[in-house]
Design a protein that fits this description.
- About 50% of the residues lie in helices and about 0% in strands.
- By secondary structure, it is an all-alpha fold.
- It is elongated, with a radius of gyration of 20 Å.
């Protein structure tokens, strides 16, 4: 049975999706720390107790709104290189670094205040995300359909399994990622997959470790942003050093020892 609609729900949006969208707007504006049921209900223009008809608790709603926020940010970023053998390898890697910096600047502020809330971060991870980067195929806001009891159960929906028992196709992830959509396995997973494909095409050395290289690139983006946020800087105040992408890529490609 479809969840009962409220007068505040526009168009064809479901009430759970409407609540997640309201929480997502608040997270994008103010971050997730300190977000209250009352604030979400006021933003959604519904009664405070409505969310408990569709989610196990406030933490589940916030976790789903965090995931929706990450997805929204991803969809707004430029597409990544489409595949191996296309374009210049160094230019493609620079694109990954630029993407990673933009992604971290946009999403980490929402997580910086949650280091003391492992319950919310665990819920986010259970939905297919991670503490700072998305995972694969987690549900979009309107995919949240409450079980027949009217109460959500923690961990019930994972890896794209919807509450009504339907599942999202696993074939959509990679194409969607390369069109600027949801990244399969997060930025680290997408970059490692790209480097493995380039390795198979002969453009990356056989002895190279794509997983380690992806960790270097994503870790550099992470380190540029998170320590400054934790020190109290606003995302808009963080300055990317000149040629940051070029320096990271040069070191990743050519290493530290003389050639």
């Amino acid at each position: 049975m479809s969840p009962r609609r409220a007068a505040a729900v526009p168009g064809s949006e479901t009430l759970p999706g409407h609540l997640i969208a309201a929480a997502e707007r608040l997270i994008a504006r103010d971050g997730a720390a300190g977000l209250t049921v009352r604030a979400i209900a006021k933003e959604a223009r519904v009664a405070d107790g409505v969310l408990y008809n569709h989610f196990a608790d406030k933490e589940e709603l916030i976790a789903r709104a965090l995931l929706a926020h990450v997805r929204t940010v991803e969809r707004g970023l430029p597409p990544l290189p489409r595949g191996p053998g296309e374009g210049d390898l160094e230019t493609n890697l620079r694109a990954y670094v630029d993407y990673g910096v933009a992604l971290h600047l946009a999403i980490l502020p929402a997580f910086a205040g949650l280091l003391g809330r492992p319950d919310i971060l665990a819920r986010f991870a259970a939905l297919g995300g991670g503490p700072t980067l998305p995972g694969a195929h987690a549900g979009r806001p309107d995919d949240v359909v409450p079980p027949e009891t009217g109460r959500a159960r923690t961990g019930e929906a994972r890896d794209g399994d919807l509450r009504d028992g339907h599942a999202r196709s696993d074939d959509a992830g990679s194409d969607e990622a390369r069109d600027g959509g949801v990244l399969e396995g997060g930025l680290h997973g997408e970059l490692a997959r790209y480097l493995r494909a380039e390795q198979a095409a002969g453009r990356v050395a056989a002895q190279a470790d794509p997983e380690a290289a992806a960790t270097m690139v994503v870790g550099a983006c992470h380190e540029l942003v998170l320590p400054r946020l934790l020190a109290g800087a606003a995302a808009g105040e963080i300055r990317v050093p000149p040629e940051f992408a070029g320096r990271v890529v040069t070191t990743c490609l050519h290493g530290l020892t003389p050639r």
